Amino acid sequence: MGTNEKTTEDRSISRIGRLAWGTIVAAMLLRWLAQPPLAVWPLVFVAVVPLLMFAKAALLTRRHLLALFFVATAYWAGSLQGLRHANPLLYPCWVVLSAYLASYSVLFVILVRRSDRWRCPVWIAAPVLWVGLECLRNYFLTGISVLMLGHSLANVPELIQIADLAGTYAVSFMIVIVNAAVFQTITWNRQRTTPQQTDHQSAEHRQLIVAWVLAVTVVLSTIGYGRYRLNQPTRSSDTVIALIGRNEPIEYVQTKERELEIFQGYLQQSIRATQATEDAIDAIVWPESMMTGSLPWVIGDGNAEQARLHGVPMSEVTAWLQQQRQRYLFRAANVLRLLAEANGPTRSPPHLIGGNAVLDYSGTPRGYSGLVHLTPDAQVDQWYGKMHLVMFGEYIPLVKSIPWVREFVPPGMGIDRGDGPKVFRVNDLTLNANICIETAVERVSINHFRELRNQHQPLPDSIVTVTNDGWFDDSSVIEHHKRCAQLLAVACRRPILSSANNGPTVWIDSTGQVVEELPRGSEGHVLANPQIDDRTSLVVLIGDWPARICAGLAILAASWRRRESA
To answer: What is the pLDDT, as a whole number, of residue 197?
Structure first.
């Protein structure tokens, strides 16, 4: 080979490399721009196109895939950078999580490229594989639903109502179908410049027509369905709920004095909420852990074996536990008395629902991140224990199996999982309890509704969720959390009432739209009078089986090569 030929080949390879990098960066940049903080949502309809172009490129090497992996890791690290603020221990976890999530982009490209072997058109392969991979990441390693493609349309009401059919997956599916049609157009325009491949051009032209017919049909159907759902009536409720939000700095290890400071801050904020309106507030909601104030709610009467091991008479254990409960209820009565002083014409105490640590001494001692419901007569009606725990934030895998790992775990990082969904009643309104990440892992609340339905219990009228997003400073993670809640409201067809510390203190209606919101980083309250929506969504009836089928097809596609080689 001559020198000139080598130079031409080197230039060609260099050009392909530049194009690959450009495509990769465009894919991640478009996706980032479509989401908060900028939220230029129309870009999501072309955000997947660069990945499809990358997948269908003539030359695709391991180096190209490695480049995609690194750029995708940077995308996820930038999008979720707020996670690192909670504790220095979370910095490596943040990087590992970003790399893990980036692997789904690489897998998507590989599987789309592999679909050519089965002659599966891109307008079928791309949406099925994308939704399948979103479903897998929503289950694998406890799951994370944040930054699904469909969340970019959270503030476009007509386009997200299909979430009541199959969850946010349905919105993502629709978006990728449009991306596939745009990609098919680009492919067709390229093929027209090569007259030698007339048969191939004809096939591409047919694919182009089918892709656009499908895309236009799906989008118009989505808009039509959305408008129909948006125009359906709801019922009014007389119940008024105050969602309290503040911006309290948080540390993993809080002193007793700091816990009491936070408690006092939320009490004063709640009193100001009652003073700000002449009408009576029926319930006040405090964020996750803000109601503990160094005094957890204690249940159980102790364990005789534990008492014997520690050399303490069982009677003393029982008496101490009873005393702790009395102290808790005494404080609750005083708090409710203060809240009643300016609460409407009758000055009646409200219900108080707050994030509160719960300790169970029925057997082996257990601790929960709880949501406690105090009635106006200062009694604990019910409490809910958080069911979906945050990996590396509230528990570390294998920590109980490998004792020496415990030495590196900060205090407070190790709580137990709750035992099932709970419904609180405030006057004529019933509330399904959620805590923190449970609105950011979509299946959790949907499964709550499904479990209640299987128990032949009536579905709750609304979802009340409390969170402490003070860990994430003023990052876009807070906005991502809110968008998860917006799509969840549509999926369950229930309003969401969220009380947060430096997070989304917001009232969202059953169509996923924000009715009222406390500006991020501010302190105050939102008065919510949620409308009752009696509709039962399809996704509550059947679960996320459509997405699971897509996940099964993605797994089948990923394992196909191994079976071929075998």
So the answer is: 55
